[in-house]
Specification:
CATH architecture: 3-Layer(aba) Sandwich
Number of strands: 10
CATH topology: Rossmann fold
Shape: globular
Mean pLDDT: 90
Radius of gyration: 17 Å
Structural class: alpha/beta
Strand order of the largest sheet: 5-4-1-6-7-9-8-10
Number of helices: 10
CATH class: Alpha Beta
Low-confidence stretches: 1-11
Bound molecules: S-adenosylmethionine
Helix content: 25-40%
CATH superfamily: Vaccinia Virus protein VP39
């Protein structure tokens, strides 16, 4: 089968969702992890298997108004994530997760090598990025239009892999691919994180937790907030075993951000042995 045949066409466009509450939780945690995660050398190898376009233009009524646009200003505004995000909001833009993470990693590592994958033709057309991504020269970016689940299994020695599938049009297939790829990363002792939507049912995410011995930090929107009735009721960031101590050390910041999102924080763990 050729590489092109392996590409799964999906009708998913992240632009209308950019900066929504799910992005806030995801990107806040990625930036916080970038401040503490260990690398194997002076050049940090960061991978996103589902990277999306590098920058999104924000429409006046987009979902960002309920996400980054709704976070009250306060004492942690100078925290990495919020200060980067608010800088982009000034130009009505919101960057991809990897832009946040790479910028923060570049503060601690002499070099940052970013490996990006996405199957979408439209996303691929946005690489290499035409815009100034406000990144230091020590960050270099490689994009490939490939199935990220398969591509990361071929990559030698990433320091951190972030998996952010669309769970659309086939959420079940994404959960199955996550179990396969995360189990493979775990067997190579590679740190990974996964973002997922919470729609009231924890069965699929629990399987992933159980099979990979991960933990997850889930925020659930308050029932009166954010468009009651909408399917997504919250979201979670699952992290591999090696990142759990770092997440535990961030407890105060995580609770503070969940509060400001008007959400409740749940920490989930495996319920049975993985083997
Ligand atoms: C949720 S968006 C990514 C958002 C991005 N990670 C961020 O934080 O800004 C999901 C992306 O996955 C892409 N995609 C879907 N299936 C894929 C696959 N098998 N491999 C790689 N990318 C895929 C879609 O084209 C879409 O751009």
């Amino acid at each position: 089968m050729s590489d092109n045949e392996k590409i799964i066409a999906v009708a998913y466009n992240h632009s209308r969702k950019a900066g929504n509450p799910g992005d806030v939780w995801k990107h806040f945690i990625l930036v916080a992890l970038a401040d503490v995660v260990a690398g194997k050398s002076g050049t940090f190898q960061y991978v996103e298997t589902h990277c999306g376009a590098p920058v999104h233009r924000l429409a006046e009524t987009g979902e960002w108004t309920e996400g980054i646009g709704a976070i009250p200003k306060g004492s942690i505004d100078d925290s990495g994530y919020l200060s980067i995000a608010r800088d982009w909001l000034k130009t009505n833009q919101y960057p991809a997760g990897w832009v946040f993470t790479a910028r923060q990693l570049a503060r601690r590592f002499a070099g940052v090598q970013v490996h990006l994958f996405d199957t979408s033709r439209n996303v691929a057309a946005a690489y290499p990025p035409a815009e100034d991504l406000r990144l230091p020269g020590s960050v270099s970016v490689k994009f490939k239009r490939e199935n990220g689940y398969l591509a990361v299994e071929q990559l030698a020695g990433p320091d951190l892999v972030f998996l952010d599938p669309p769970f659309h049009p086939d959420a079940k297939a994404d959960w199955q691919s996550l179990v396969r790829t995360c189990s493979e990363l775990r067997s190579r002792q590679i740190n990974f994180a996964v973002w997922y939507p919470y729609e009231g049912d924890t069965a699929e995410s629990q399987v992933l937790l159980d099979k990979t011995d991960s933990n997850s930090w889930e925020v659930r929107w308050a029932s009166s907030g954010q468009r009651p009735g909408r399917r997504q009721k919250g979201c979670g960031m699952l992290v591999s075993e090696g990142l759990i101590p770092a997440m535990k050390a961030l407890e105060e910041e995580l609770t503070g951000m969940a509060d400001r999102m008007g959400a409740e924080l749940f920490i989930r763990q495996p319920v049975k042995q993985s083997r």
